[in-house]
Amino acid sequence: MEVTESSVKANHGASVPDTSASREQISQAHWLQSRGIKAEERVQLTRLSHMRYQHPDLDVLSDFMLNFGMTVAKRTESEVWFRGYGVDQYVYYATKGPKKFLGGVFAIDSKEEFEKALKVPGALPVQKLSEDPGGGQMVTIVDPDGFPFNVIFGQETGEDASTPATTKLRANYPHEKQRLREFNRFERGPAAVHKVGHFGYSTERFEELLSFYTSHFNIVPTDLLYMEHDGHRMDVTTFMHLDLGQNHTDHHSFFLGASPIGSHVHHCSFEVFDYDTQHLGHQWLASKGYRSVWGVGRHILGSQIFDYWWDPAGNMVEHYTDGDLVNEDTPIGILPAGHESLAIWGPEVPLAFLQ
Ligand SMILES: [Fe+2]
Question: Any coiled-coil ranges, and where (predicted)?
Answer without folding.
Answer: none
